[in-house]
Amino acid sequence: MITELPIIKPEPIAVEKPLAFFNSHVDVNQTIEALEAGKSILINGMYSNGLLLLKALKAHLRRKLPNKSFQEQRAFRAEYRKLSNLVLIEIVNHKLAVKKAPLIGWLEKLYPETPDFLLTFPQVQGLNSAWQWYENGISIPVLRNKLHPFYGTYFPTRFEHLDLFDNWLKRYVGPKKTAIDVGIGSGVLAFQLVKYGFQKVFGTDTNPNVIVGLTEFMGDTKLSRKIELDFGHLFGKFEKQTELIVFNPPWLPASHNPGMIDEAIYYNESLFPEFFAAAKQRLLPEGKLLLIFSNLAQITQLIKEHPIEKELTEGGRFQLEKRFTKKVKAASDKTERDQHWRAEEEVELWVLGNK
Ligand SMILES: C[S@@+](CC[C@H](N)C(=O)[O-])C[C@H]1O[C@@H](n2cnc3c(N)ncnc32)[C@H](O)[C@@H]1O
Fold first, then answer.
1. Residue 186 contacts by C-beta under 8 Å, 6 or more apart in sequence?
2. Angle formed by the axes of helices 70-84 and 28-36, nearest 10°
3. Mean pLDDT, the chain, as a whole number?
4. Predicted confidence (pLDDT) at residue 260 exceeds the cutoff of 50
5. Residue 21: Cβ within 10 Å count
6. Which residue among 169, 248, 269, 270 has the greatest number of ligand 1 atoms within 8 angstroms of its CB, and so is best to mutate?
7. Angle CA(291)–CA(292)–CA(297) in degrees, nearest 5?
8. E strands within 121-187?
9. pTM, rounded to two decimals
């Protein structure tokens, strides 16, 4: 049943009229003007022509728009997203129809029935880097085996929160029969739970790619008998009470209706109240509820109220047992944007018990 889930992937683009194209012989400023007028442009010749055009577009927007505060950066990225998605590239026989293009296995794996179509250049860039992550795998300090994240799924790129969770698990002496990992993503927290001897972990996610990807990744290995998956909201079909619930939720409030992939990053107003109400029913009397969070939304002034603090003061369901924090290493691309707020960023591990 799981393999029948509809995978989220970029929609092939249907084109009616012939497109203007861009290559190294075409004037880049005129091409940017065409994009600003809402016209689509097809890349031809070398793959690098697409990179060249997007680089020029970014430089153009950087001259045109302010790009300092967190909010300005968001607006800048939205404009860049809009225009860069008018840059198209052709796929023929599951391969990019330009010279010196990367080989992207997703073009065959995700579109078995569609050999020829168009995608936007940023979509192809996304597919390309996702393929590299998937093929090469990602080493995670707290795990022995690499992760191989499926297309369109969230995976960790910084590890401080995983260290916090690992240190907590190392010292945990309670029962280890079952645990629930809400929003399992790449599976990293569930794998940590198995590493520390949990016999059964139930994992849910609202992103079908997560479920399809993890099902494929685990195959019929021992892991697949320890981790049971369900495609669903919050706890999905898992009703039974458990000794441990972990949730690494999205860390930022949504400014719009979140799409599927954004649901890894942005939460809507009802997510936390619904989560805590459902968690209350599923946590054994002596069980622990663990939440991983970050102060990112607070230090960037996106929220005044911390959703976990709000639950603790108003919910009447849980009490705080311990809260661990760890400073996040500054991002390496400091030159890219003004990220002074990054210096204050901390990840949090909240350990709650029943009231
Ligand atoms: C920040 S990621 C964490 C993934 C993984 N647990 C980790 O720690 O790396 C949040 C995950 O929760 C999933 N998610 C978001 N809202 C959800 C909901 N209402 N129910 C279940 N999963 C949800 C997202 O699709 C995403 O995979």
1. 138, 147, 149, 153, 154, 155, 156, 210, 214
2. 100
3. 91
4. no
5. 17
6. 248
7. 115
8. 178-182
9. 0.88
Buried b (16+ CB within 10 A) or exposed e, 230-251: bbeebbbebeeebbbbbbbbbb
Whole-number Å distance between alpha carbons of 85 and 42: 11
The answer to whether the CB of 250 is under 6 A from ligand 1 is: yes
- Rounded to the nearest angstrom, the distance between the alpha carbon of 55 and the centre of ligand 1 is 32
Residue 185 CA to residue 298 CA, distance in Å, equals 24
**Model pLDDT, residue 304:** 75
Mutate to test the pocket of ligand 1, among 263, 269, 291 (most ligand atoms within 8 A of CB): 263
For each of the domains in the chain, give its residue range(s) and CATH number, in order of start. 2-135 (no CATH), 160-354 (3.40.50.150)
**Helices and strands in the chain: count of H runs, count of E runs:** 12, 14
Q: Which atom belonging to ligand 1 lies closest to the Cα atom of 156?
A: 9
Interstrand relation of 318-327 and 283-294 (parallel, antiparallel or unpaired): unpaired
Structure token digits, residue 243: 């000794």
Instruction: Give 171 Cα–ligand 1 centroid separation in angstroms.
Output: 25
Contacts of 335 (CB under 8 A, 6+ apart): none
Please tell me the residue having the least CA distance from ligand 1 atom 11: 183
Give the bridge partners for 326, in sequence order. Answer: 347
Residue 323 exposed, middle or buried by CB count within 10 Å (0-12, 13-18, 19+): middle
Is there an atom of ligand 1 within 6 Å of 342 CB? no
User: What band does 261 get if pLDDT is binned at 50, 70 and 90?
Assistant: very low
CA distance 29 to 33: 6
Q: What is the dihedral of CA 211, 214, 216, 217, to 10 degrees?
A: 170
CB-ligand 1 contact for 182 (6 Å cutoff): yes
